[in-house]
Amino acid sequence: MFGLIGHSTSFAVARKRAEELGYMEHAKGDLDTWCSTPPQLLETFTVKSPTGKEITGGYIDSCFLPEMLPARFKTAARKVQNAMAYAQKNGFSVTALGGFTSIIFENFDLARFQKVRSTMLEWQRFTTGNTHTAWIICRQVEDNAPRLGIALEKAVVAVVGATGDIGSAVCRWLKQHTGVKELLLVARHQGRLETLQQELAGGNILQLEEALPQADVVVWVASLPKNVEVNTNTLRRPCLMVDGGYPKNLDTRIHAPHLHVLKGGIVEFWRDIGWHMMQIAEMERPNRQMFACFAEAMLLEFEGWHTNFSWGRNNISLVAMEKIGQASVRHGFRALGLSDLVTAPALSIS
Questions:
Q1: Is 0.90 surpassed by the pTM of this model?
Q2: pLDDT reading at 148 higher than 80
Q3: Which one of 2, 197, 212, 265 has the fewest CB atoms closer than 10 angstroms to its CB?
Q4: Rounded to whole angstroms, how far apart are CA atoms 298 and 295?
């Protein structure tokens, strides 16, 4: 049995969902109420692969809310730990950390705290899902850039958030597998950028405002900050932007002719799943679409790989990406593409 640990995208969405489920105390409660709420197993469901194999899973809401950061980071960390302990005690063989839960785990180095009250967490039961997410983002670049007339062997690709776990894996894959003309590396930590550049034996380190006008493809593995504006008039036409950050916000902030924003790291299953959890994440087709990190837990269960397939920072190998990618195709997942886009209202940031 596999598990998925997630959370609502906002306090407002969480309260609405609580009302729908009949949790009126939480629907009307304030943030303090949610801070003291333990994890909840909201639903269980079955998933069937095209191979014929059927597995059972469960969705655990950590009851974390983005509004808890940054002021209540200790509460956020505790919620992730409690959700992991809950999954283990309830017998989930492998559980994916979705949304902010994996970010909180890594950024707050929660691996230092293996014991949660009376439970000693067994790390092999958990995965961040980042390997599958990285592979899906690379597949989205490879499949969709040519549709816009962008030949990757002649293209300049900027990776924003290049030094993160997913970002560095995307850089390695694009360098080795697609032979892009040039990689532009964008991140906040100069030392990590220089280390990545040495590992890749290439790539140009640039600031965001320098990289964007040069790029035919931009892979965002970090959300666009609210206080940062993008002058769309300076961007290349056409330009493919793959929004692999969390939360995803490019499609509402960057919209202009010949700029194509694609939700990165999202997959669609081959058939409907009888769950309701993806309505919380506001997927276009919630019965089939999900985050690639969640799909990784399903793939590990389908294959019987009960291990922390994705764990730690910058440990994703090309071999592991190929392995999870093959399993992804075998079990009926596909990456979202340009043909899946729903037209958004015109909004130009300049």
A1: yes
A2: yes
A3: 197
A4: 5
Q: What CATH number matches the domain at 134-265, 3.30.70.3550, 3.40.50.720, 3.30.930.10, 3.30.70.1520?
A: 3.40.50.720
pLDDT in tens, 55-77: 999 999 999 999 999 999 999 99
Confidence (pLDDT) at 108: 86
Mind spelling out the 3-state secondary structure of 201-269?
Answer: CCCEECCHHHHHHHCCEEEECCCCCCCCCCCHHHCCCCEEEEECCCCCCHHHHCCCCCEEEEECCEEEE
Task: Identify the residue whose tokens are 């890749």.
Answer: 200
Q: How far apart are CA 110 and CA 210, in angstroms?
A: 35
Which of helix, strand or coil describes residue 4? Answer: strand
CB burial of 69-106 (b: ≥16 within 10 Å; e: otherwise) equals: eeebeebbbbbbbbbbbbbbeeebbbbbbbbbbbbbbb
First to last CA, the chain: 48
Domain ranges of the chain: 2-130+268-335, 134-265
10, 160, 187, 208, 228 from 253: Cα distances, Å: 18, 16, 20, 16, 10
What is the model's pLDDT at position 67?
Answer: 94
* Cα separation, 262 vs 248, whole angstroms: 10
Give the tens place of pLDDT for each residue, 187-226: 999 999 999 999 999 999 999 999 999 999 999 998 777 7
Residue 34 half-sphere exposure, CB side, CA atoms within 13 Å? 26
Q: Report the relative pairing of strands 266-269 and 289-291 from DSSP bridges.
A: antiparallel
Q: Is the pLDDT of residue 349 over 90?
A: no
At residue 347, the pLDDT reads 32
- Cα pseudo-dihedral 303, 277, 269, 175, rounded to 10: -80
3-state DSSP call for residue 11? helix
How far, in Å, CA of 122 to CA of 128, rounded? 14
